[in-house]
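Data availability (excerpt). The following record was deposited with the supplementary files.
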Amino acid sequence: MRVSITSVTALCLAAGGASAGGIDRSGQSIGVLFEEGRYLELNAVSVTPELTGDARAPFASGSGSGDVAPSYFRWGAAYKADINDKLSYAIILDEPFGADVEYPGGTGYFASTSNAEFDSRALTGLLRYKLNSGFSVYGGLRIQSVEANADVNFVRPVGPPLFYSANADVHYGVGYVAGLAYEKPEIALRVSLTYSSEISHSVDTNETVLGFGSLSTSTEFETPQSVNLEFQTGVAADTLLFGGIRWVDWSDFALDPSLYQTVTGGSNLLSYEEDVVTYTLGVGRRLNDNWSVAASLGYEENTGNLFTNLGPADGQESLSLAAIYSEGNYEITTGIRYIRIGDTTTGVSGTPAANFNDNDAIAIGVKIGFRF
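Predicted structure:
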């Protein structure tokens, strides 16, 4: 039995503040490494979040932020091939982390017209070696680029307003991936454990504060290390149970440009107090020779911590539905994911400033795979 379902959850993952912990976007799955033969896939996801908040005293209490999360699009590609009976390799291109926040003007909100973008791209090369008794090991290198910019305009309850801007150049860093898998094909069982290392960046940054001046510095940070546990197993004829647990070390992530820390008394532009664990559980079923369907649930705990205004989301619950059509050497997967975004309180310099409640997002994705 071959039911191409386990990549469905990766297809529908979409983040920023809108759907996954921190600024997680792709989930960094290595599932393509287990495809049969020579395989190429292309995937794309469109995400439409709705993220609104209300200011609280002493920050212009009662004024609304408007929708601060614009829609965005992400894409990826992967290629896998066998070298011999024991060795295979995969090349994965994705956008692992990202954020896009834009506070509309004319709302009376204390952070009106503030905006920020964080973009990344990664190219991962993996080599897998099959051991005896169903076990295999794999590993490789990941090259990652990052770039960011921000305009932070805060009306503060004490002192003059803050008008701050930062532009960070593109920077490239290198990390590694290592993992272990076990397979038992007769019951469609596969379990994989994957570690992705942190990747260090030192980004040339130009900062400006109105009334204070400009500063050109180097901002150092690390995109976080993570561990993915992914599994699938047959539970009945043509039926597959699948899921995963993803841990990301967000507590060690901080964007802290020098001038911003100076004028805000030590605040970070973007940071998180706790690590994030994402749980996924789903079931897939093959209907006939051409069609399969799948559904999955996702969950992240709401921590209740104070978040920055450039990352107003805490935890999530999600439902994903997908359909897979296969014919000959190709297959097309389409999926939709609804995400209920966890309620959040944001702060300025440690003072609670706004409540973001009852927000959600919808992600629609497609993946096309070819075997040749």
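Summary of structural features: The chain is about 5% helix and 60% strand.
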